[in-house]
Design brief:
The structure is a single chain. By secondary structure, this protein is an alpha+beta fold. 27% of the residues lie in helices and 16% in strands. A 5-stranded antiparallel β-sheet has the order 1-2-3-5-4, covered by helices on one side. 18% of the residues are buried. The chain binds zinc ion.
C-alpha cells in the first residue's frame, strides 16, 4: 500500500534497523520501544493488522519467522525469554511485536502483579493479572461466547 509506513520500510523507502530479513519478511527494531531491543516482525506484502484474519499460510510462516527472530534477540541481548504480542492498533499492516524480557527470574513463577480490568480497550495490552472471577460469572461469559457462535 502506497501510504503504509511498514510497506515503505519493506520496500526500503524508509530507513530501519534490520534485525532479520528474508524474501517475505523483515524484522526491525521498533522506533518507539518500551524496552531494549523491542522488535517488529513484518510481512513484506501488505496484509491488514488483525492477525486472526491472515491467510493460514501467512499466519503460520509469520509465527515461525517470529520464533526465529525471538531466538536472535534471546542470544543477542542475553535474555531468557521474549514475549510476543499481536495488537495491530498502531499501524494497519500485520506485525508481531517482540519484547525481550530483561532481568526476569525464569525459575520463579506465580509472582504476578495485577488488579486491572478493562471494560474498554485502553490503547495497550497488559499481561498484568486482573480481578478474580467466580464460577457464576465465568458460566455467564462462556454462555455468551458459545451462544454468539451457535455452539450451544
Ligand atoms: Zn503495508
Amino acid at each position: 500500500m502506497k501510504e503504509c509506513v511498514f510497506c515503505k520500510i519493506a520496500d526500503k523507502k524508509l530507513q530501519a534497523s534490520i534485525v532479520y530479513e528474508d524474501k517475505d519478511f523483515i524484522a526491525i527494531l521498533d522506533g518507539n520501544p518500551n524496552t531494549e531491543g523491542q522488535t517488529l516482525v513484518l510481512t513484506k506484502k501488505h496484509y491488514s493488522s488483525y492477525v486472526f484474519n491472515l491467510p493460514e499460510e501467512v499466519y503460520t510462516r509469520l509465527l515461525l519467522v517470529s520464533k526465529k527472530v525471538a531466538k536472535i534477540l534471546e542470544k543477542g541481548l542475553k535474555v531468557k525469554r521474549v514475549a510476543m504480542v499481536f495488537e495491530g492498533q498502531g499501524v494497519d499492516h500485520i506485525h508481531t511485536k517482540l519484547y525481550p524480557m530483561h532481568k526476569i527470574n525464569d525459575k520463579k513463577f506465580g509472582e504476578l502483579s495485577g488488579g486491572v480490568y478493562f471494560e474498554k480497550y485502553p490503547g495497550y495490552i497488559t499481561t498484568l493479572v486482573g480481578h478474580p472471577i467466580d464460577q457464576k460469572n465465568k458460566d455467564k461469559i462462556l454462555k455468551k461466547i458459545l451462544k454468539n457462535n451457535d455452539l450451544k
